[in-house]
Design brief:
This protein has a 5-stranded mixed β-sheet with strand order 3-2-4-1-5, with helices on one face. It contains 3 helices and 5 strands; from the N terminus they run βαβββαβα. The protein starts with 10 loop residues before the first strand and ends in a 7-residue tail after the last helix. It is of the alpha/beta class and 151 residues long.
Length: 151
């Protein structure tokens, strides 16, 4: 794939896929959805499946396609899930997913220590959305993280 280069990392943006627990193959699902809307591939840099498997979807030094207006300065990390079977927002992530998310962010900080961890809808142009993304307590996530410079 030929992705555009990205030279700075201001944000690590956490997303969820807005999918119910019945969707278990995140890679196939997101690749199909991405191609339906004209993407080359999955728009996130990293996908974390329900079993905690961390999938690298795009190289870290390339632009993602996950948060318009911020793609040139961010990495997108997506948790599979975030909605119930009726499509309503729900924190239905597994503990292994949450552990993998924490590990992933701390790993990314080793290369980009100045990056801020934010949820997709915490960014200004997305704050007014009815749907929260991710369906996760971002304050609790940030409080649980250990920045490598703090060690």
């Amino acid at each position: 794939m030929n992705y555009r280069a990205r030279t700075k990392t201001t944000y690590l943006i956490v997303h969820d896929s807005h999918t119910p627990p019945s969707v278990v193959d995140g890679e196939t699902y997101l690749r199909h959805k991405g191609r339906q809307i004209g993407l080359l591939d999955i728009g996130y840099h990293i996908l974390i499946d329900r079993d905690g498997k961390v999938l690298i979807c795009r190289p870290g030094d390339t632009m993602g396609s996950h948060t318009p207006g911020y793609n040139d300065e961010s990495l997108g990390v997506c948790l599979l899930g975030g909605a119930n079977e009726e499509g309503e927002p729900e924190d239905n992530f597994t503990q292994v997913q949450k552990d993998a998310l924490k590990w992933t962010i701390e790993w990314l900080w080793r290369k980009w220590p100045e990056a801020k961890v934010v949820g997709h809808t915490e960014l200004a142009r997305y704050r007014k959305r009815k749907l929260r993304c991710p369906s996760l307590d971002m304050g609790a996530l940030r409080a649980s993280l250990t920045h490598p410079t703090a060690a």
